[in-house]
Amino acid sequence: MEIDQSSVIAQVSPGTVSQVDKSWWSPSNFIQWCPTSMSLLQIAERRILKVIKTPFEGKYVNVGKCVGGVENKIWTLVLNKNAEKTPLVLLHGFASGVALWCLNLDTLAWNRPVYAMDLLGFGSSSRPNFSSNALEAESQMVKSIEEWRKQVGLEKFVLLGHSMGGFLASAYALQHPDRVTHVILADPWGFPDRPSGNDANTRIRIPFWVKGIAYLLQPFNPLWLIRVSGPLGPRIVQRARPDIFRKYTEAVEDADVAISEYIYHCNAQNPTGEACFHAMMASFGWAKYPMLHRISALRSDVPLTFIYGARSWVDRHPGQIIKENRKESSVEMHVIGGAGHHVYADKKDEFHRLVLAACQSADSLSVTRNVMVEEKSTEAEERVHELQTEISHTVLGVMQVTETLESP
User: Fold this and answer.
1) pLDDT value, residue 244
2) What pLDDT, on a 0 to 100 scale, did the predictor assign at position 283?
3) CA dist 270 → 69, 143, 159 (Å)
4) Measured distance CA(58)–CA(14) in Å, rounded
């Protein structure tokens, strides 16, 4: 199937997918420093999406000149759109795209409409230039999501965001509480405060040369290495995170190649979404304006569900603090044992159960708590989580210890 670059819907049938184009390793293409293109990204995506059994459609949604003064289109997958239950909208995390929801779409769309989008600046969506100001860049992302909602025609929906998508889901809910019936935050990025430079130094004595490297790398986007490595980029991706590819081996054929090619082509394109993330972050692990201190402004009748992985590096204390502080609101916090940061893929059955429970509460317009038995993290996993959080703060502290705070 050739994906139509216009806003016309391109119908996709289960099991129909083009073969991956091997020619990008040809001598002629080797001359190009980054062996990638949007068509190669689309081919890589279709190779993964053929595992979806539910009929779905892919379309570009024109969101107008909401960012960068140019016409922008958001690539969207739509499943079961005629179902009567509350729609579920999925926002992916940093360096990701719609195809990485492939393990979840069939179950989540069993009896409700599901929409998964490539956020503006990521995946197959348009890549406009965002503001370098953190709050302006965030607001541009939120505006693009709202324009997308208007064009798709959704009145109310459940909004689920993973990692960076969780941060943006929260920002959207703050600005448009009338549109969300429930917000589900899966291992969300950008909630805790950033440790001070002094705190980072107390964990480890940082050599002068490391500080120098950290200072020199500060202006670069997080995934610059993939692009600067040129033809070695795909190999770097494949070898860097084999744990991610293993999550898909049971469902996706040749997952190590298929997933790595998809991730590479998502991130070897013009990195405008990555630049937006760079503007919002204060070193990779933290946001310049942490959501922990802003979520209190969320309207009290908007329910929140936090879903954390017991083995994730993400600090889950903000979820507990928010749960304790929003006493007049419905706030659920779940920790899935055995799951890491990619909680939607690590323990997909438990993830589905928690997400569908939140969706069902939205269906009934109920904000009462669902009394459920959930898989708890073990003491060993708790200790692993604490160690990973400590290590993450230390390593990420190296990146920000010499950083001069940018003026927002």
Assistant:
1) 86
2) 76
3) 17, 21, 27
4) 12
Quote the pLDDT of residue 238. 76
List Cα–Cα distances, 353 to 41, 228, 334, 405, in angstroms: 31, 41, 11, 41
C-alpha angle with apex 8: 5 to 9, nearest 5 degrees?
105
C-alpha–C-alpha distance, residues 355 and 118, integer Å: 20
DSSP 40: H
User: Distance between terminal CA atoms of the chain?
Assistant: 44
Element (H, E) at 259: helix 255-267
Q: Which amino acid is it at 267? A: N
Quick: pLDDT tens for 18-54: 233 333 333 344 335 677 889 999 999 999 999 999 9
Phi and psi at residue 219, in whole multiples of 5°? -75, -15
Nearest partner of 10 among 2, 18, 22, 20, judged by Cα: 2
- The pLDDT, as a whole number, for residue 347 is 97
Query: If you count them, how many residues does the chain have?
Result: 408
Question: Which stretch of DSSP H or E encloses residue 63?
Answer: strand 56-64
The pLDDT of residue 32 is: 57
Please report the pLDDT score of residue 403 as a whole number: 34
Q: How far is CA 342 from CA 87, 94, 296, in A?
A: 23, 11, 26
Q: What is the 3-state secondary structure (H, E, C) of 291-307?
A: HHHCHHHCCCCCCEEEE
- For residue 208, what pLDDT is reported? 47
Question: Which parts of the chain register pLDDT below 50?
Answer: 1-31, 200-221, 366-375, 385, 388-389, 391-408
- Asked if 188 contacts 161 with a C-beta cutoff of 8 angstroms, the reply is yes
Name the pTM for this structure: 0.80
b/e per residue 158-196 (b: at least 16 CB within 10 A) = bbbbbbbbbbbbbbbbbeeeebbbbbbbbbbbbbbebbe
Mean pLDDT (the chain, rounded): 81
**Of residues 56, 89, 92, 75, the one with CA closest to residue 8:** 75
Q: Which residues pair with 281 in a beta bridge?
A: 287
- Looking at residue 389, its amino acid is T
Give pLDDT, residue 273.
95
Task: Say how far apart CA 150 and CA 144 lie, in whole Å.
Answer: 10
Could you tell me which residues come within 8 angstroms of residue 243 by beta carbon, excluding any fewer than 6 positions away? 340
| Rounded-to-integer distance, Cα 109 and Cα 100, Å | 15
Question: Among residues 392, 300, 125, which one has the least CA distance to residue 145?
Answer: 125
